[in-house]
Design brief:
Pathway: Purine metabolism; IMP biosynthesis via de novo pathway; 5-amino-1-(5-phospho-D-ribosyl)imidazole from N(2)-formyl-N(1)-(5-phospho-D-ribosyl)glycinamide: step 2/2
Catalytic activity: 2-formamido-N(1)-(5-O-phospho-beta-D-ribosyl)acetamidine + ATP = 5-amino-1-(5-phospho-beta-D-ribosyl)imidazole + ADP + phosphate + H(+)
Subcellular location: Cytoplasm
Shape: globular
Order of helices and strands: HEEEHHEHEEEHEEHHEHEHHEHEEE
Number of helices: 11
Strand content: 25-35%
Strand order of the largest sheet: 10-12-7-13-11-15-14
Helix content: 25-40%
Keywords: ATP-binding, Cytoplasm, Ligase, Nucleotide-binding, Purine biosynthesis
GO molecular function, one term: phosphoribosylformylglycinamidine cyclo-ligase activity
Number of strands: 15
Length: about 375
């Protein structure tokens, strides 16, 4: 008679999953808001939405995302406590683009084998990201997929919901000729373009533990630098008396030009000047190490600009000053004018299915 087949024998350790939940409880407890009802472990997270009754026309905003192949570097370096910060940033900072305040978030972790300490480390990063964003972590799921993922492999995803008054929604409808485009500095690569970065590093024969003088640390430490979370400072900027933010853009996949074009109205052209900033060393390193064409680099990586804000021209200096006060370096990137219909390799019109405005990138970066 053959041996009986059990769930544990099939590769799923329920007890390890329970242990992971116990280890993450303390981290999750720090990522809360007063509207959260109940605690960890329910079938669904509960959030008191009664405050929305005081709004004239509350519009819910939702977003979902992951961190792409950046998880492969975390796995290679056996460092798992920062990838969750990336996850939160990629989700909640898409929500704030519309002017909405993210309220709560859930996460999903799929892994080949539940190692409680590793899962707890991942969730600690997610909880830390939620703290930084002022978002409640109301629940999540860890799924063990033996045979589909290797024991040390995992992937993460998340979703969040926010709210904004209808009259306060930001976007192309507010942008005008004469507006100024502001850049908000990124913390590094953030969480886009890692398939390119990993290919470049592999082709060079580098190990992630290799120290790089121009970076001042290992290439792995640089690659795992967490995504900057802009949510709190952007909400503060939007609510600053005397400032009128017209549009925001999260610079993710597609690069600066394509993402800025998504939040401009048809008929508008934003001119962006490369000479207004010097990209951090990691971007030139990737370019030179892999002989990556400039156009491909700019379509893939953020080049040091993690977010863009469009404001009235006369408010640009005040907006830059306020951003710096809030801890995020900012500068004037360009301006908005009428689109004359010119074409060229340096002009992007619309992106990701959005029939938006146009962006022209000019000049060269300062060294």
């Amino acid at each position: 008679m053959s041996e009986p087949i059990t769930y544990a024998g099939a590769g799923v350790d329920v007890e390890a999953g329970d242990r992971a939940v116990e280890l993450m409880k303390e981290s999750v407890a720090r990522a809360q808001r007063p509207e959260v009802v109940g605690g960890l472990g329910g079938f669904a997270g509960l959030f008191d939405a009664s405050a929305l009754r005081g709004m004239s026309r509350p519009i819910l905003a939702t977003s979902t995302d992951g961190v792409g192949t950046k998880v492969a570097i975390a796995q290679a370096m056996d460092r798992h406590d920062t990838i969750g910060i990336d996850l939160v940033g990629m989700v909640v900072d898409d929500i704030v683009v519309s002017g909405a305040e993210p309220l709560f978030m859930t996460d999903y972790i799929a892994c080949g084998k539940v190692v409680p300490e590793r899962i707890a480390a991942i969730v600690s990063g997610i909880a830390r990201g939620c703290e930084l964003a002022g978002v409640a972590l109301v629940g999540g799921e860890t799924a063990e997929h033996p045979g589909l993922l290797a024991p040390d492999e995992y992937d993460v995803a998340g979703a969040a919901t926010g709210v904004v008054e209808y009259d306060d929604v930001l976007g192309p409808q507010r942008v005008r000729e004469g507006d100024v485009v502001l850049a908000l500095a990124s913390s590094g690569l953030h969480s886009n373009g890692y398939s390119l970065v990993r290919r470049v590093i592999a082709a060079a024969g580098w190990d992630w533990g290799r120290h790089v003088d121009e970076l001042g640390r290992t290439i792995g430490d640089e690659a795992l630098e967490p995504t900057r979370i802009y949510t709190k400072m952007l909400l503060d900027l939007i609510r600053t008396p005397g400032l009128n933010v017209h549009a925001l853009s999260h610079v993710t996949g597609g690069g600066l030009a394509a993402n800025l074009a998504r939040v401009l109205p048809t008929g508008a052209l934003a001119t962006v000047d490369r000479s207004s900033w010097t990209p951090p060393a990691i971007f030139s390193l990737v370019q030179h190490l892999g002989s990556v064409p400039q156009a491909d680099l700019e379509r893939t990586l953020n080049m040091g600009v993690g977010f863009v804000a469009v404001v009235p021209g006369e408010q640009a200096d005040a907006a830059v000053a306020r951003s710096v006060e809030l801890g995020v370096p900012a500068w004037v990137l360009g301006e908005v004018a009428a689109d004359t219909g010119e074409t060229g390799a340096d002009i992007v019109r619309g992106a990701k299915g959005v029939d938006g405005g146009a962006v022209q990138v000019t000049g060269s970066h300062t060294s």
